[in-house]
Amino acid sequence: MQTVRSLVFPRWSSDVRLDGKTAIVTGANTGIGKETARDLARRGARVILACRDMAKGELVVQEILSEVPLAKVVARQLDLSDTNSICQFAENIYNTEKALHFLINNAGVAMCPYSTTADGYEMQFGVNHLGHFFLTFLLLDLLKHSAPSRVINLSSAAHAMGRINFEDLASLKDYHSVKAYAQSKLANVLFTREMAKRTEVMGVTVYAVDPGMVSTDVLRHFGRPLQEMVRRFNCLLKSAADGASTTMYCVVTAEQDLSTGGYYSNCKRAECSRAGQDDGTALKLWAMSCHLLGIRWR
């Protein structure tokens, strides 16, 4: 299986060390986030696993420590579907960490049945976009203090099917799980684009990443026919470790070889959709996100 995958997805590698650096990875208890945390720890970074399920997070901490005995890795509680939890997490970070060099907004939900966050937002838009938008806002001072620093937002090729429905962001009138997912992933790209303009002078750069089609728990809400297709063609899906490669590429590649605000796939700069390049929509989404969260982010 791995041989087939290596032919389809050539392995990227780098020996860059990250000693003295601190990283936060959301959704690090499973899948791509777990592999990202593992890679960061192997390179010597201090890694904070931001997890909704602390029991699973602690298991990953022990797993990483068994592989890298001197790893500096801890788990912290974070529920991106609850702004109170996000505030508590950020406060904990400011109380315990002196620096933050990498914020990896990896967590996400995909194509789930309709539900809402604790604050009443549609779950996919609320977690995938608003939760990470708010988290980044709260941690920006630490990122600026630690500059040069980077924010990496995990998007998806599905963003190309997305449209920001400003008239019904909560999907109250018409909910379709795939459309809602695509909207949230387009929001990740637009957030990256707009934030890059505002933070480059602060020494904070931002990148959107498409990890590719990866065999992870995020596929659990697929219907039975799609799940059967995934099982049948599993060898053509990336492993979680391969899915983490583009994230790590944006972590370790020299800043002059990256473009802040850019979209990356398969460990190189890629072209995002036309909708993902719409500066007007990006600015409107930024303003709407601030309004929904009740914050001022200039």
Detailed description of the structure:
This protein has 298 residues and is α/β, with parallel strands linked by helices. Helices cover 43% and strands 13% of the residues. The chain is built from 10 helices and 8 strands. The longest helix is centred in the middle third of the chain and has 23 residues, at 123-145.
Alpha-beta content class: alpha/beta
Q: Characterize the largest beta sheet: strand count, sense, and whether it forms a barrel.
A: 8 strands, mixed
Q: Helix and strand succession? A: HEHEHEHEHEHEHHHEEH
CATH topology: Rossmann fold
- Under the CATH scheme, the architecture is 3-Layer(aba) Sandwich
The end-to-end span amounts to 49 Å
Share of β-strand residues: 5-15%
Task: Calculate the mean pLDDT score and round it.
Answer: 92
Helix content: 40-55%
| Rg computed from alpha carbons, rounded to a whole number of angstroms | 18 Å
Shape: globular
Keywords:
single chain; 298 residues; alpha/beta; 10 helices; oxidoreductase activity; oxidoreductase; Si:dkey-73n8.3
Structure summary:
InterPro entries: NAD(P)-bd_dom_sf, SDR_fam. By secondary structure, the protein is an alpha/beta fold. It has helices at 2-8, 31-42, 54-67, 83-96, 123-145, 177-199, 224-232, 240-243, 245-252, 279-293; strands spanning 22-26, 46-51, 72-77, 102-105, 149-154, 204-210, 263-265, 268-270.
Secondary structure topology:
Elements: H1 2-8, E1 22-26, H2 31-42, E2 46-51, H3 54-67, E3 72-77, H4 83-96, E4 102-105, H5 123-145, E5 149-154, H6 177-199, E6 204-210, H7 224-232, H8 240-243, H9 245-252, E7 263-265, E8 268-270, H10 279-293
Helix pairs in contact: 4-5, 5-6, 6-10
